[in-house]
Design brief:
The chain contains 4 helices and 18 strands. With about 290 residues, the chain is mainly β.
Length: about 290
């Protein structure tokens, strides 16, 4: 069997896309093993995730996302932008507003088109979930987890936990360049006493009122990535909740590029989160039957 694929990235967060819109190519039970092989950066193509483009009974298309270790993820903001551009420019869904089925529910993507090319995608990431039971975080399921101290290996970290379709822990520092992202991120991610499903970990530095730097450790990748779209949205929410910004339009500098977040508020609470940025085609290829 020969499998066609497309490599894309959003702010350096890179993905392999496999078009199954007209029919399943990789059987569902074989996808975890297939993904772990193709996402390997030494023995495969290499990626932060694998996206299967599928038809949806309810919406325009279905977004099926796998982490490099073969586990499924609920959502990926950077991946959704790549997915949306692929749908439009390959003629699968020729709409400027695309409704996408994900494990975390409906995601709506608005495409900004120039000369029939997608220049940017604005993704409605929904309403952030802040209650412990929704993220999840152990403890009283109705309480929030905002700027709470936790101790790991004798060190105290203050964490704000937010779910944007998947769980995120946000920590603020004066200088994130001095942070050992892989080491600290791994310890927090696997602190299962508090985060039973694991968690993505983000290290954020305020530059000015509406501008931040961010570094991310991603669950499933199990390392630092160049960007994490849903993590940036969670960090924008955490910045607002911790009174580090009062702005509704926030800019984030990642190691892979720049992304923007817009917050909607109603009665002083966040009622919507939007992620804005581009998506880039890198290359296309075909896997031989030997790889399978």
């Amino acid at each position: 069997m020969r499998v066609k694929f497309t490599k894309m990235h959003g702010s350096g967060n890179d993905f392999i896309l496999i078009d199954e819109f007209s029919g399943i190519i990789i059987p569902e039970e074989r996808k975890p093993e297939f993904v772990s092989k193709i996402a390997d950066r030494h023995l495969g193509v290499g990626a932060d995730g694998v996206i299967f483009i599928q038809d949806s009974e309810r919406y325009d298309a279905k977004f099926s996302f796998y982490n490099p270790d073969g586990s499924k993820a609920e959502m990926c903001g950077n991946g959704i932008r790549c997915f949306s551009r692929y749908l439009y420019e390959r003629g699968i869904v020729k709409k400027r507003i695309i409704d996408i089925e994900t494990l975390s529910g409906l995601i709506r993507a608005e495409l900004f088109i120039e000369n029939n090319k997608v220049k940017e995608v604005r993704v409605n990431m929904g309403v952030p979930r802040l209650k412990r039971g929704e993220i999840p975080v152990s403890g009283n399921s109705e309480e929030e987890f905002i700027n709470e101290p936790i101790e790991i290996d004798g060190k105290t970290y203050r964490i704000t936990a937010v779910s944007i379709g998947n769980p995120h822990a946000v920590l603020f520092f004066d200088d994130i360049e001095r942070i050992d992202v892989a080491d600290i991120g791994r310890k927090i991610r696997f602190y299962e006493e508090l985060f039973p499903n694991g968690i993505n970990v983000h290290f954020v530095q305020r530059i000015r009122e509406n501008e931040f730097k961010i570094r991310s450790y991603e669950r499933g990748v199990e390392d630092e990535t160049l960007a994490c779209g849903s993590g940036i949205c969670a960090s924008a929410v955490a910045s607002f909740l911790n009174n580090l910004t009062s702005e509704k339009k926030i800019k984030f500098h990642t190691r892979g590029g720049e992304l923007r977040v817009e917050l909607e508020t109603r009665n002083g609470e966040i009622s919507g989160v939007y992620l804005i940025g581009g998506a880039v085609f890198v290359f296309e290829g075909v896997l031989s039957h030997n790889f399978m």
